[in-house]
Automatic annotation (TrEMBL):
InterPro entries: CRAL-TRIO_dom, CRAL-TRIO_dom_sf, CRAL/TRIO_N_dom, CRAL/TRIO_N_dom_sf. The lineage of its organism: Eukaryota, Metazoa, Chordata, Craniata, Vertebrata. Residues 139-304 form the CRAL-TRIO domain. It comes from Physeter macrocephalus (Sperm whale). Pfam families: CRAL_TRIO, CRAL_TRIO_N. GO terms for molecular function: phosphatidylinositol bisphosphate binding. The gene is TTPAL. SUPFAM superfamilies: CRAL/TRIO domain (SSF52087), CRAL/TRIO N-terminal domain (SSF46938). This is Alpha-tocopherol transfer protein-like isoform X1.
Length: 364
């Protein structure tokens, strides 16, 4: 071969082949060279960091949370991580969100006590699984009739402490139209919407209950079984702080209603009930007239339910994701955990219409 004479055609082919091999070697060298690799990586932008919690509290609310809830901003994410680790270790089968903002609700509701916050989280999910009549398909569009009745709304103005005011009007409910559980579903929807706000997590809420026109027959629907379940959720199964319950226009029958409720109330909550009767001046000493509608002697215009109903209906997709997705029939951790007092699915044997009416009649 050394003495062979190449034709111009073969010489051209050999030249092209050698050039291609040289280019391939240089390319491989660049791909495998540590300096080249490190250089290219340093020039690339870093991957985006996962979206984390961003505090929306004002400086005043940060100070209030520090004083009342033992929340220290510099330790906040450490506390959230501690609760997250406890859930993973002690409740590995609990189907729950572990996002910072979600877990913070439970820490704030229990003043950053890890053990109590974890128990509240377990109770929260246990409540939802123990009362399917309330929590199945829980979304605003399924409750249009209850919302349109005016049974509940949230007033547009907060009280002087920054608490949203949940206004309940039982007289607007007509039992023949839908069962009482629809009202409870509407209350729970409202609480879920309210607690999304960090301000509400810190400030809590106030309940204004107007019992004007509540009859014996209507009151009898709220027996001990339902009372225990509702109070069990509000006290031990939901991450919200109830700062006061103001009752107005209560008839004599309310003594019977309160007699049903009181045994299930913790002393701290029972002391936050204020019965004003028809004395609106007494109400105004707690809730100023400038934040109340004219129906309660206020100057903030007529009571309007449309704005709050619209806010709930606008959150339809959020509630569908949270409450309308298929899930496990029962988490093993919930099977082992004791539900909050009053959340047993078994109704007491004395919870009959006659027993309730007898108790209410005794108040006359």
């Amino acid at each position: 071969m050394s003495g062979a004479v190449l034709s111009p055609h073969h010489a051209g082919l050999l030249f092209l082949q050698g050039s291609w091999e040289l280019m391939s070697e240089e390319s491989d060298s660049l791909r495998t060279s540590p300096s080249a690799a490190s250089l290219s990586e340093s020039e690339l932008p870093p991957p985006p960091a996962p979206a984390g919690y961003v505090c929306s509290l004002t400086e005043d609310l940060v100070a209030k949370a520090r004083e009342e809830l033992q929340e220290k901003p510099e330790w906040r994410l450490r506390d959230v991580q501690a609760l997250r680790d406890m859930v993973r270790k002690e409740c590995p089968n609990l189907s729950t969100s572990l996002e910072d903002a979600f877990l913070l609700r439970f820490l704030r509701a229990r003043k950053f006590d890890y053990d109590r916050a974890l128990q509240l989280l377990i109770n929260y999910h246990s409540c939802r699984r123990s009362w399917p009549e309330v929590f199945h398909n829980l979304r605003p569009s399924a409750l249009k009739e209850a919302l349109a009745s005016g049974f509940l709304t949230v007033l547009p103005h907060t009280d002087p402490r920054g608490c949203h005011i949940l206004c309940l009007r039982p007289d607007r409910w007509i039992p023949s139209n839908y069962p009482i559980t629809e009202n409870i579903r509407a209350i729970y929807l409202t609480l879920e919407k309210l607690i999304q706000s960090e301000e509400t997590q810190v400030n809590g809420i106030v309940i204004l209950a107007d019992y004007k026109g509540v009859s014996l027959s209507k009151a009898s629907h709220f027996g001990p079984f339902i009372a225990k379940k509702v109070i069990g959720i509000l006290q031990d199964g939901f991450p919200i702080r109830i700062k006061a319950v103001h009752v107005v226009n209560e008839p004599r029958i309310f003594k019977g209603i309160f007699a049903i409720i009181k045994p299930f109330l913790k002393e701290k909550i029972a002391n936050r009930f204020f019965l004003h009767g028809s004395d609106l001046n007494s109400l105004h000493s707690n809730l100023p007239r400038n934040i109340l509608p004219k129906e309660y002697g206020g100057t903030a215009g007529e009571l309007d339910i449309t704005a709050w109903n619209a806010a709930l209906l606008a959150s339809e997709e959020d509630f569908v994701r949270e409450f309308c997705q298929p899930g496990p029939p029962c988490d093993s951790i919930l099977g082992q955990a004791l539900p909050p007092e009053g959340l047993s699915s078994e109704a007491p044997c004395d919870d009959s219409m006659w027993a309730v009416k007898s108790q209410l009649y005794s108040c006359y």
